[in-house]
Each structure stands twice: as structure tokens, then as C-alpha cells.
Automatic annotation (TrEMBL):
Origin superkingdom: Bacteria
Keyword Transmembrane appears in the UniProt entry: yes
Membrane-related topology note: Multi-pass membrane protein
GO cellular component, one term: plasma membrane
GO molecular function (one): transmembrane transporter activity
Protein name: Sodium:solute symporter family protein
Keywords noted in UniProt: Membrane, Transmembrane, Transmembrane helix, Transport
Similarity comment text for this entry: Belongs to the sodium:solute symporter (SSF) (TC 2.A.21) family.
Spans traversing the lipid bilayer: 43-66, 73-91, 118-145, 157-176, 188-207, 280-301, 321-345, 366-386, 398-417, 424-445, 457-478
InterPro entries to which the protein is assigned, alphabetical: Na/Glc_symporter_sf, Na/solute_symporter, Sodium:Solute_Symporter
Compartmental location: Membrane
């Protein structure tokens, strides 16, 4: 029954998504495939944007983080609200620049605004790298669900390959519109699942209410509900929470797929309305964290101590097969929808900002084919990363935010400082990545800024470098196409 229900949810959604995508598409070109022809209204933009928030990172990752660490899982409550607040200001400006200059990708924005093809290529490669890391999250999670439904005898490689293949099928033909339809289905199902689990979870662990679940967790594991949480030696202090939440907020809309998603809206007003209501989603984390605490009270011991498997293991052990099947199918969609959008964005960037500058005579259909084929390679890279790593989904996600945060100063300065130029932004990116990735960087930051998120510190070094280089540059070299 578990497999049958999971397949029904996934295959039914995939079929509906492909049908919807084909019916709504008005042309076969990269613009239609990658950003839906710039015609997404409030409802479809809401579901698609929320779909990039309500992912396996949010549900499986945060519940597992609550189980393992306790209070540090509150990161989810703060980062979503901060991101939406910043998005209200930033996203309409990105949309306006894209509409005015016919931009499709984040790398388009950098190349156009700073009048530098080299900067566009560098941003493209950095964006693709961050996207592949983020796809890894979805591959890991989907692999877990595949093994849950098909049995532990399925090899991790087979599970990861199945996960990647389904993601590719999702957007290979119909593009972003397919993902938008599936995002709506996924969000509705996930809300139903979370409400259903939370309505019954207290009784499963001998508590009287969700608040009692929190109280019992605190009684059984003193300090779990306050910082530094269940594992003080992990260094997840309140300083870590504040700096990590700020790093996520500053980097969220810099993630290439969310940056590109801004171009799909039909108006700036659609984006602003979405940003106003988006923080509602952060309220769901109260329930997701409660599920992690309930799993801890129930004595759940996930396979190999894998924190990502905490919630699936709890559901399998304490709920009937039909609930497990519905949960498995919905969890698959949690990975499929964002994962497919990530691959679509990576393919679009590769085709438009890496291949097209080398082959400027390439027509639209050829470019679309290149973008689609590139997705296969990026999915393969994500599978390789997923098989070689054992981090929690939250840790992988924070790594992706730290990596993409190196592009944030270039975006913010484009809207805030007319003197920002390509040389300064490029220098900032190079110095920022050095501050983040050099072998001695972690030890240096830990010694001098204990508890701080290293990605935020590297971003600050990046921004300071941009300011220094641009301040020393002649005014004539500043960007001449500042978007409004």
C-alpha cells in the first residue's frame, strides 16, 4: 500500500503538471520554458515561490535538526521571515530590470548591468556550482523516500539515480509551468500531512498537546528548547542563529533559481503581495519542530544516525501504511518540485551564459536543447555529491547559501551604489571565495569570531573589497546601465 499510494501521488502530479505545462505554453523557446513567458499571476507565483521555501530542507531537514540539536532548528522560523522582508524591496527591482532588458538569468543581470561578459560567465559558473549543491539536498531526501517505499534493499546509488531521473522528467519538456502546477499540489498535500500528523502526534508520545510535546522534550532533555540546544559542543549558539539567519536572508534571493523566478511574475505588484504573505509559511515550522521533538520522545533511532531520516522513520513506526504512503508521495514532491526548478535554472544559465557567448549564432531551439541536455550532467554531479556526503540537509543548505552569498554584494550594490563596477565586483567575488574556501579559513574565523556563520563573514570581506576597488576606480568605469 505504501508504494501504491506514493506512486499515485507522484505519477498523478507529474501527469497533471506535464499536461498543464503543455496546455499553457504559447511557444517553444527558452523564455517560455525557463520563466513561463513572464506571465505568472499572484496564485501561481505564490505556489511556485512558496514551493522553493517548503522543501525537504524545511520538513525533513528541520525536523531532523530539532531531533539532533533542539533550539538551533529555530533558524527556520527567523530566516523565512527575514527573507520575505528583504524580498519585498529587492524582488520587484530584479523583476523591473529583467522586464526592461529582456533578461532571463542572474548572469544576464550581472553581464548587462556591469557591461562585462567575463563577469557574466564567472557569475554563471558560481551560480551553477551553488545550484548543484542545492540539488544534492533534494537527491539525498528523495533517495531516502525511494528506499522507504521500495525497501532498504535498494542501493543508495539506485535510489539517487531514480530520484534524479524523475526530477529531469518533471521539467525536461514543459519547463517552469510544470513545476508551478506541481508546487500547488505539493503545498496543499504537505499542509494536510503536517496538520494531520500534528493533530495526532501528542497521543503517540504520551503528551496532551503540542505544547506538552515541547514541555516533555525539555523535561527529558534539559536545555533542548534554548540555546545552545541539546549539543552545546556543536557551537550552535544564539550568535550562530542570528548570523546564520542574516546570511540566509541576504543570500536567499541571490540563489539563481529564485533570482530567475522573479522574472516570471507578470507584475511588480504580484511580487510585493507574495512577499507580504510569504512569512505565513514560517508558522508551519512550529509544527515541524514539534514533530522532531516528538520523534525524540518516541525514541526514534534513524538508520545510521541519519538526521534526515528522523521524520520518515517516525511516521513508519507510528502510523498506518496508508499514512506512510501519503507521506512518502508528498515528501517525494517536496524534493521533486524544487529539484526540478534548480536543474532547469542551471541548464538555462549554462546554455545562455556559458555556451551562447561561445556560439552567438545559435538559434533558440538549439539553445533550448543545450539547456535541456546540460541538466542531465548537473543531475549526475548532484548524484555524485549525494553519494559522497553524509551531512544533514540543513548543513548542506547552509553551505549552498554561503557559496551563493558571494554574489550578493554585486546585486545589492547594483541597486544602491552607482559607482559599483565590474572590476570591483569581480575582485570581491574572488576575495570572498578565498575567505570562505581556503584551507585555513574555517580555523581563522572560528578563532576570531566564535559562533559566527562563516559565510556571512566572507560576504562582509567580499563587500569591503568591492567598496575599496570601486572607490579607487575612476568614475567612468562605473556601471552605466543601473537598473531601476
Amino acid at each position: 500500500m505504501i508504494l501504491a499510494l506514493a506512486l499515485a501521488v507522484v505519477l498523478g502530479t507529474v501527469a497533471g503538471a506535464l499536461l498543464y505545462g503543455r496546455q499553457q505554453a504559447r511557444a517553444v523557446n527558452v523564455t517560455e520554458w525557463a520563466i513561463g513567458g513572464r506571465r505568472f499571476g499572484m496564485l501561481i507565483f505564490w505556489f511556485l515561490n512558496a514551493g522553493e521555501v517548503y522543501t525537504t530542507f524545511a520538513v525533513l531537514g528541520i525536523s531532523g535538526y530539532a531531533w539532533a540539536y533542539g533550539a538551533p532548528a529555530y533558524l527556520a522560523l527567523t530566516s523565512v521571515s527575514l527573507s520575505a522582508t528583504l524580498g519585498y524591496w529587492l524582488m520587484p527591482r530584479i523583476w523591473a530590470a529583467g522586464r526592461a532588458r529582456n533578461l532571463l538569468t542572474q548572469a544576464d543581470f550581472f553581464a548587462d548591468h556591469y557591461q562585462s561578459r567575463l563577469l557574466g560567465v564567472v557569475v554563471a559558473m558560481a551560480g551553477i556550482a551553488a545550484l548543484v549543491i542545492y540539488v544534492q539536498i533534494q537527491i539525498v531526501a528523495l533517495g531516502l523516500i525511494v528506499r522507504l517505499t521500495l525497501g532498504p534493499q535498494i542501493a543508495p546509488l539506485a535510489a539517487a539515480l531514480i530520484a534524479a531521473a524523475v526530477m529531469l522528467a518533471f521539467v525536461f519538456t514543459a519547463g517552469l509551468r510544470s513545476a508551478a502546477f506541481a508546487a500547488g499540489v505539493k503545498d496543499v498535500l504537505m499542509v494536510v500531512i503536517v496538520i494531520g500528523l500534528c493533530a495526532t502526534v501528542a497521543a503517540k508520545v504520551g503528551a496532551t498537546s503540542l505544547l506538552d510535546v515541547y514541555a516533555q522534550a525539555e523535561a527529558a532533555f534539559p536545555g533542548i528548547g534554548s540555546f545552545p540546544g541539546r549539543q552545546p559542543d556543536a557551537g550552535l549558539t544564539n550568535v550562530w542563529l542570528m548570523t546564520s539567519a542574516l546570511n540566509v536572508a541576504l543570500g536567499n534571493w541571490i540563489l539563481p533559481h529564485l533570482f530567475q523566478l522573479c522574472f516570471s511574475a507578470d507584475s511588480a505588484e504580484t511580487i510585493r503581495r507574495n512577499a507580504i504573505w510569504q512569512p505565513i509559511y514560517s508558522l508551519s515550522y512550529f509544527f515541524i519542530i514539534a514533530l522532531g521533538f516528538a520523534a525524540l520522545l518516541a525514541g526514534v533511532a534513524p538508520p545510521d544516525g541519519d538526521t534526515n531520516a528522523v521524520l520518515p522513520s517516525f511516521v513508519v513506526a507510528h502510523y498506518p501504511a496508508w499514512v506512510t504512503g501519503l507521506f512518502a508521495g508528498t515528501a517525494c514532491l517536496l524534493a521533486l518540485v524544487p529539484g526540478s526548478v534548480l536543474l532547469l535554472t542551471a541548464g538555462t544559465i549554462f546554455g545562455r551564459n556559458v555556451v551562447l557567448p561561445l556560439r552567438p549564432a545559435m538559434d533558440g531551439r538549439a539553445l533550448l536543447l543545450v539547456s535541456r541536455v546540460a541538466m542531465i550532467g548537473f543531475a549526475g554531479a548532484a548524484v555524485w555529491l549525494a553519494l559522497g556526503g553524509s551531512k544533514s540537509l540543513v548543513e548542506i543548505g547552509l553551505s549552498a547559501y554561503a557559496a551563493i552569498g558571494m554574489l550578493a554584494p554585486g546585486v545589492f550594490f547594483a541597486f544602491l551604489w552607482p559607482r559599483a563596477n565590474a572590476a570591483g565586483v569581480l575582485a570581491g567575488i574572488v576575495v570572498g571565495y578565498a575567505a570562505l574556501l581556503l584551507p585555513t579559513a574555517d580555523a581563522f574565523w572560528s578563532a576570531h569570531f566564535p559562533g559566527w556563520e562563516h559565510g556571512l563573514l566572507a560576504m562582509a570581506v567580499n563587500a569591503a573589497t568591492v567598496v575599496l576597488v570601486c572607490a579607487l576606480s575612476p568614475n567612468a568605469s562605473a556601471a552605466t546601465s543601473r537598473p531601476r
